[in-house]
C-alpha cells in the first residue's frame, strides 16, 4: 500500500465529533419489578457485561488495551477531566476530542464501528494522546501496547474488518495473518462434517496445522462434557486440534452469575435455560447452548426477558462464528398487546404476499412477539429488533422469538438533523417516524423472517413438496426445477449474500404489508379502511419515506476501494430505494438543484404508494422469495448484485453528499445494577461521554 492515505479518505475514519450520546432510560420499568425479579435481572445483567472483554477481543488485537487505558485514565483522575487537562498540559478541546473517541469506542466495544465494520480513529494528535498517557505509570504501560495500532497507519485494508487473506482485520483468526480463505473454509467444512457447531470458536493457524479455540471456563472438559469425544484429527497432513478455555476467566464469571440468577428464576423453563447456559459456558458445549435456546423459546411472555451467548455471525468474515452478546429487558405490556394482535392475525395476512401456499410453511409458527425496554445490552451495538434463535431446526420445530426494543427505538438526541427529507414532509416525518418504524420492525421481524418455506429434499428421495407434481413458479409459470439437496442449508447455499438478501426479503415484506390498513389499525392508526389522507396514511407514507431515506443514507456503508457493502441491512435498503425509483418518476425521484447535491432530497408521492409503490415492491419481493425458496442462488445473486451495484452517479455524486451529512450513530449510556443492603438498586449515569466512561468503570467484574 502507499505510505499515505489522502486527507479526504482519512476524514471518513475520524471519530464522530461529537458522538450522539443518548440515555437508555429504564427506571420506571425496573422499579415495577418484584425483589425476586430484580435479583434475577441483576445477575443476568452482570453475566452479559462480564463478556465485554470477549467482544473487545473479537473486534481487534488492540481493542482490549484501549479499553484498559480509558478505564485506567478515568480512575487516575477520578473523572475530573479539567484537572487532567492541566496535568497533561492540554487544551479543553483536546480533552474533548479524547472523550469523544472514548465514548464512541465504548459504545462500539472496540475501535471498529459495529455498524459498517470500518475503523475509527481519535481526532487527537498522537503527541497529545501520549501526553495523556504519561500522567501515570499504569496508563503509560498500557499505551505502549496499542500506540501503533490506534491510528490509521499506511494500509487501507487494515481499516476494515474482513478476511486476513484479503488484507483486512479479523480476530476470529487470531495471530494468523497468512491464513487463506481456502484454509478457513477447509477447517470449517471439516468440523461441520464432524458435527461441531462453530459459533463459540476462533481458528488459529499454527506451524503444523490449526487450533480451534473454544470459549469455555474449563481448560480441559472431559470427553463426556464435550460435544465431540475426539479433539484432534488430521486434515490434508495438517493437525486440527480443539483447544478449550478461550476467554476462560470471562466464561467463569458469566457461568457463576448465571448460576446465581437460577436461584431467582420465575419458572421451570428459566431454570432449565440457566442450567444449560451454565453447562455451555463452563464446558464449551454448543449442544447445551441449543437446549438453552429451546427452553428460552418456550418461556413465553416473562416479565424479565433475556438471551445471552455467541449469537450473531455478521462480523466473522466467514459468516459462521458468533459475537458475544447478551441482553436483559423488561416487557412493555401496552405495546406488546399490539404485537400480539399482529401475531394472531398473521395467517390472514401472509396469503396477501406475492406467492401461493406451495412456497409457504404449512402452518405459521406463531412466535412470541414482545416489546421490551432494555436494561442491559452487552455487545458491539444495539439493534432495534431481534429475531432469534438463528438455529433453523429450533425455529422450525420449537419456534422463535421476536422482540422490538422500545427504548432503543424512541431514544432521541436533542435537535437531531434529518437530511434528505423535503421541507413539506418534515413535520409529518418527525411526528410519525417512531410509530412507522415500530410497524416496520414488527412486520419485518414477525412476518418477514417468519414467513416462507424452503423447498427441500430433506434426505435422499424424501421431499417436503410433491416431487411428482412440483409447485409452479410464479416467475416462469412452469414447474420448479431447483430445490435444496440433502445437507444443503439456506446459509451454505447462499453464502456471503445470505444475510443481506434475507434482511432485504424481510424489509420488503414489511413494505408490502404496511399498505394493509387493518394492520395499521392494530397499531392504533385509522379505522382499517384504505385512506391515504388519514392518520394511518401518514404512518404508511412515513414508513415508505423512511425506507427511501435509509436507502440514500446507506451509501455511507459502501466502500469504493473494495466496492463492497459493509452492512447487510444497508445494502438491502439501497436496493429497495432503487426499486422505488424504478417504479417511475410519478412515484419517487431524487431531486436537487445544486451541483454538489448538497440540497439532495427524495420526493415520494403519498397518493401513488398503493398503485405504484406496492406493486413495484411486490414484484421485487416475489423474485427474492422464489429464488430463496428454490435454492436458485445463480439467479438470486445476478439480480441482487445488479440492483445493489453502486453506479457512477451514486458513487461520485450521491455518496459524497451523504458523507457530508452523515449523522453519528447513537451511543447508549446504560445503567448498572448493584446489590446494596440485601436489595438490588439501579444506578443511572448522565448521557455524556464522561457518563459513558463512568458506567463502564463501575463494572468491576469486567
From TrEMBL:
The protein's enzyme class: hydrolase
EC nos: 3.4.14.4
Necessary cofactors: Zn(2+)
Entry's cofactor comment: Binds 1 zinc ion per subunit.
Cell compartments where the protein resides: Cytoplasm
Homology family: Belongs to the peptidase M49 family.
Name the UniProt record assigns to this protein: Dipeptidyl peptidase 3
Taxonomic lineage: Eukaryota, Fungi, Dikarya, Ascomycota, Pezizomycotina
InterPro entries (UniProt xref): Dipeptidyl-peptase3, Peptidase_M49
UniProt-listed GO biological process terms: proteolysis
Amino acid at each position: 500500500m502507499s505510505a499515505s492515505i489522502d486527507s479526504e479518505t482519512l476524514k471518513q475514519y475520524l471519530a464522530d465529533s461529537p458522538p450522539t450520546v443518548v440515555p437508555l432510560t429504564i427506571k420506571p420499568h425496573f422499579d415495577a419489578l418484584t425483589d425476586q425479579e430484580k435479583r434475577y435481572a441483576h445477575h443476568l445483567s452482570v453475566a452479559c457485561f462480564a463478556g465485554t472483554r470477549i467482544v473487545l477481543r473479537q473486534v481487534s488485537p488492540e481493542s482490549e488495551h484501549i479499553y484498559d487505558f480509558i478505564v485506567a485514565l478515568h480512575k487516575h483522575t477520578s473523572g475530573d477531566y479539567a484537572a487532567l487537562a492541566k496535568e497533561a498540559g492540554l487544551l479543553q478541546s483536546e480533552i474533548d476530542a479524547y472523550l469523544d473517541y472514548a465514548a464512541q469506542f465504548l459504545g462500539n466495544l472496540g475501535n471498529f464501528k459495529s455498524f459498517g465494520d470500518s475503523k475509527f480513529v481519535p481526532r487527537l494528535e498522537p503527541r497529545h494522546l501520549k501526553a495523556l498517557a504519561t500522567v501515570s505509570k499504569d496508563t503509560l504501560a498500557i499505551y505502549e501496547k496499542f500506540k501503533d495500532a490506534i491510528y490509521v497507519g499506511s494500509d487501507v485494508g487494515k481499516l476494515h474488518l474482513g478476511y486476513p487473506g484479503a488484507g483486512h482485520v479479523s480476530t476470529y483468526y487470531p495471530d494468523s495473518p497468512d491464513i487463506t480463505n481456502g484454509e478457513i473454509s477447509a477447517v470449517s467444512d471439516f468440523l461441520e462434517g464432524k458435527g461441531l457447531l462453530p459459533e463459540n470458536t476462533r481458528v488459529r493457524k499454527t506451524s503444523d496445522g490449526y487450533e480451534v479455540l473454544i470459549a469455555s471456563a474449563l481448560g480441559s472438559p472431559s470427553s463426556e462434557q464435550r460435544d465431540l469425544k475426539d479433539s484432534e484429527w488430521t486434515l490434508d497432513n495438517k493437525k486440527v486440534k480443539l483447544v478449550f478455555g478461550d476467554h476462560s476467566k470471562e466464561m467463569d464469571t458469566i457461568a457463576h452469575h448465571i448460576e446465581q440468577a437460577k436461584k431467582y428464576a420465575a419458572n421451570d423453563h428459566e431454570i432449565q435455560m440457566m442450567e444449560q447456559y451454565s453447562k455451555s459456558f463452563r464446558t464449551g458445549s454448543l449442544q447445551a447452548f441449543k437446549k438453552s435456546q429451546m427452553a428460552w423459546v418456550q418461556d413465553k411472555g416473562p416479565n424479565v426477558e433475556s438471551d445471552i451467548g455467541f449469537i450473531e455471525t455478521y462480523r466473522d468474515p466467514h459468516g459462521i462464528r458468533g459475537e458475544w452478546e447478551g441482553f436483559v429487558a423488561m416487557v412493555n405490556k401496552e405495546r406488546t398487546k399490539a404485537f400480539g394482535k399482529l401475531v394472531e392475525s398473521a395467517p390472514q395476512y401472509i396469503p396477501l404476499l406475492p406467492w401461493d401456499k406451495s412456497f409457504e410453511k404449512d402452518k405459521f409458527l406463531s412466535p412470541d412477539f414482545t416489546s421490551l425496554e432494555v436494561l442491559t445490552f452487552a455487545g458491539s451495538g444495539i439493534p432495534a429488533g431481534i429475531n432469534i434463535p438463528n438455529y433453523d431446526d429450533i425455529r422450525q420445530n420449537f419456534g422463535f422469538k421476536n422482540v422490538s426494543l422500545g427504548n432503543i427505538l424512541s431514544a432521541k438526541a436533542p435537535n437531531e438533523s434529518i437530511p434528505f427529507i423535503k421541507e413539506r414532509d418534515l413535520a409529518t416525518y418527525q411526528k410519525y417516524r417512531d410509530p412507522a418504524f415500530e410497524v416496520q420492525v414488527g412486520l419485518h421481524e414477525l412476518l418477514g423472517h417468519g414467513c416462507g418455506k424452503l423447498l427441500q429434499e430433506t434426505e435422499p428421495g424424501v421431499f417436503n413438496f410433491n416431487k411428482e407434481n412440483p409447485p409452479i413458479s410464479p416467475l416462469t409459470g412452469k414447474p420448479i426445477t431447483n430445490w435444496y439437496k440433502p445437507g444443503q442449508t439456506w446459509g451454505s447455499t447462499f453464502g456471503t449474500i445470505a444475510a443481506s438478501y434475507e434482511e432485504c426479503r424481510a424489509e420488503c415484506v414489511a413494505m408490502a404489508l404496511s399498505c394493509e390498513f387493518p394492520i395499521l389499525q392494530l397499531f392504533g392508526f385509522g379505522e382499517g379502511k384504505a385512506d391515504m389522507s388519514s392518520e394511518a396514511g401518514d404512518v404508511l407514507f412515513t414508513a415508505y419515506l423512511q425506507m427511501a431515506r435509509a436507502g440514500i443514507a446507506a451509501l455511507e456503508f459502501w466502500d469504493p476501494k473494495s466496492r463492497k457493502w459493509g452492512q447487510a441491512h444497508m445494502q438491502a435498503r439501497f436496493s429497495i430505494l432503487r426499486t422505488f425509483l424504478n417504479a417511475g418518476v410519478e412515484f419517487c425521484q431524487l431531486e436537487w438543484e445544486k451541483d454538489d447535491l448538497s440540497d439532495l432530497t427524495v420526493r415520494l408521492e403519498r397518493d401513488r404508494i398503493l398503485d405504484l409503490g406496492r406493486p413495484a415492491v411486490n414484484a421485487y419481493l416475489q423474485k427474492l422469495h422464489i429464488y430463496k425458496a428454490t435454492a436458485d442462488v445463480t439467479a438470486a445473486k445476478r439480480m441482487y448484485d445488479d440492483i445493489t451495484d453502486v453506479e457512477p452517479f451514486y458513487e461520485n455524486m450521491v455518496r459524497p453528499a451523504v458523507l457530508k451529512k452523515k449523522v453519528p450513530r447513537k451511543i447508549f449510556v446504560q445503567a448498572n445494577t448493584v446489590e446494596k443492603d440485601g436489595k438490588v438498586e439501579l444506578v443511572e449515569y448522565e448521557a455524556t461521554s464522561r457518563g459513558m466512561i463512568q458506567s463502564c468503570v463501575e463494572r468491576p467484574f469486567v
